[in-house]
């Protein structure tokens, strides 16, 4: 939970100082992680059997 | 023991009324016990930073807004002073973070902490206009290092 509190404080600090470049980078990082997670899920889930499709 | 500022309780009650939520609904959405929420709303219990984060998530508000209301952060400057884009980006981050696996959440949170420190340090290096540019360069270097 310490990390979460530090994270909130960091966001607050970046926002207060108008560090939009750093915030955009962070959002980019989170979005890339989200896409990677979704792709990994797609490629690791077993393909549906033919009989299910039929 | 009454330790909570009345203004926080009043504000929280208003937020619940705006949403048509009961105390029990707030408890359910925030993951807190109904007793804890009741004690907070009757001023019998202090609101810790952790509870503020739980409320922020439940109410879908910026964590710093709730932390500020509870007195855990200093008062904000005028809303107009806070860059609208920065607020938008923070809100988006708040929306996306819960969708990530724990390991990725940790990576984003750690990066944010390092970026904030680097930005403050770099901005303090020079009072000239190059200060912000240098800070952005530092943050980008850290960001791309983290992605690898």
Average pLDDT of chain B works out at 80
Instruction: Please report the number of helical segments of chain B.
Output: 8
- Which structural class best describes the helix and strand composition of chain B? mainly alpha
| Domain unit count of chain B | 2
Described by the principal axes of the CA atoms, the overall outline of chain B is: globular
Principal-axes shape call of chain A: elongated
User: Beta-strand level of the residues of chain A, as a percent range?
Assistant: under 5%
Radius of gyration of chain B: 18 Å
Termini of chain A, distance in Å?
49 Å
Largest sheet of chain B: none
The arrangement of helices and strands of chain B along the chain is HHHHHHHH
- The average pLDDT of chain A is 81
Oligomeric state of shown chains: heterodimer
The poorly predicted ranges of chain B are 126-131
Helix proportion of residues of chain A, in percent? over 70%
Describe, in plain words, how this protein is organized in 3D:
The complex is a heterodimer of chains A (54) and B (148). Chain A contains three helices and no strands. The model of chain A has no long low-confidence stretch (mean pLDDT 81). Chain A has one domain (2-44). Chain A is mainly alpha-helical. Chain B is globular and about 45 Å long. Chain B is 70% helix and 0% strand. Chain B has eight helices and no strands. In chain B, helix 2 (23-30) packs across helix 3 (34-41), helix 4 (49-59) packs across helix 5 and helix 7 (102-125) packs antiparallel against helix 8. Chain B has helices at 6-19, 23-30, 34-41, 49-59, 63-69, 84-96, 102-125, 130-147. Chain B has two domains: 6-69, Orthogonal Bundle (434 Repressor (Amino-terminal Domain)); 79-147, no CATH class. The model of chain B is unreliable at 126-131 (pLDDT under 50). By secondary structure, chain B is mainly α. The A-B interface holds A 1, 3-34, 37 and B 49-50, 53, 63-64, 67, 73, 76-77, 82-83, 85-87, 89-90, 92-93, 96-97, 99-101, 104, 106-113, 115-117, 119-120, 123, 135-136, 139-140, 143, 146-147.
